[in-house]
Amino acid sequence: MEAVLALAIGALTGSGVWLLLRPRTFQVIMGLSLLSYAVNLFIFSMGRLGLAVGQEPVIQPGQPMDLAHYSDPLPQALVLTAIVIGFAMTALFLVVLLASRGVSGTDHVDGADAHDRQEMP
């Protein structure tokens, strides 16, 4: 299970970085989203010593009632907060993208198409 999660985090991080390096604004926004998903998965996976399927998240029957047998709720709260903030930032980025495209007429990050760059001296 840990290998699958590590591969998923690596794939999301690699795809996010690749999209961040693209020239179009929408691709940059999608890259930021994928990168934030990868960070959220990484933080969430650090919440327990090992990933387990089918176990209780907080109290396990038959275990002593001390802090060593509880799941840490802080990473879960951090990820939930990061998801909400990431959604709001993505909405803000999309509004800025649409306004920028309306003003400049292009969606390139530097504001110029490849055709415009060839005509410049």
Automatic annotation (TrEMBL):
Transmembrane segments: 6-22, 34-54, 74-99
GO cellular component: plasma membrane
A UniProt-annotated Pfam family: Oxidored_q2
Key words of the record: Cell membrane, Membrane, Transmembrane, Transmembrane helix
Domain of life of the native organism: Bacteria
InterPro entries in the record: CPA3_antiporter_subunitC (IPR050601), NUOK/Mnh_C1-like (IPR039428)
Membrane topology reported for the UniProt record: Multi-pass membrane protein
Localization in the cell: Cell membrane
Keyword Transmembrane applies: yes
Family designation: Belongs to the CPA3 antiporters (TC 2.A.63) subunit C family.
Name the UniProt record assigns to this protein: Multisubunit potassium/proton antiporter PhaC subunit
